[in-house]
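Predict the 3D structure for this chain.
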Amino acid sequence: MKRGKTRRTWGDVEMRAAGAASAAQLPVAGLVSFIVTLGQDDHGVGGGPDFGLACAILFAPLLLPVLGVVHSGVLTLPAVWLGRRAAAGCGRGPEWAWSVGCLVPVGVAWAGFFAALGAPFAGPAGWITASGVVPALNVAYCRRREERLGRPLRKVWILSGLVSLALCATVFGAAVVATETGLLKEYEAPHLTPGQVAGAWRDEDGKVRFRLHENGRADVPSCGDATGTWALTLGADSPARPVLDVDADAGGCENAQTWTVGGTEDDPELFVNLGSMDDPDIETLHRGG
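Done. Predicted structure below.
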């Protein structure tokens, strides 16, 4: 940086560069996340690929610029500001590297804020920090290019939009190829044998809800030590998923209900939606002990 020349961290160039890059990466990240979830169990409450894609296409042009600017204001530009001062104070290393490094404390601070509200910490800290890398690098690139050209940069938003479209098309094409070749498969619930179902099924607190035996007998200690039977059938959902019916002898036993099979063959789970499709409340059980 030339002596006597002041850089404004929240100046027009920085905000446009950070906002455009932030907005451009959101559709790509969303598409990748959607593709990843195809191989995961949505517990029967997903909105469906067509619905989600329609919403994204309809609202993205309106929301992306706003989200990009907000993301830049709360994450990227604070890290750029810290990096700029760290580089000036230390006098070693490129400014862009300091800015990228300063994304870590800013991302951790936001993750800590969300953790205080009840969200997980480690995962959000990682992806919040990572989401600022491309915008921070774009700020450094656009600033250097503006200084080299001697005039403000134009069409930053248009170029970022075109890059985003190209990347989305590439990711979508790769997903299609992966699906056709069998590398990427949609989630299918495991079809378990009686031996795989037998055992104690515990809730998230570790409490045994029922214990199933291969001969079809069920012990339900959470329901007054009731005993009964269990059976695996196919549910009415499309595509049909295996369900477990536990029929306890004790009258009015709320724990004797139908559970849907989920998870994988190596790590099966049982779940039931105690809420509604619009407001799901998923309770899961895992086998163990």
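DSSP finds eight helices and eight strands in the chain.
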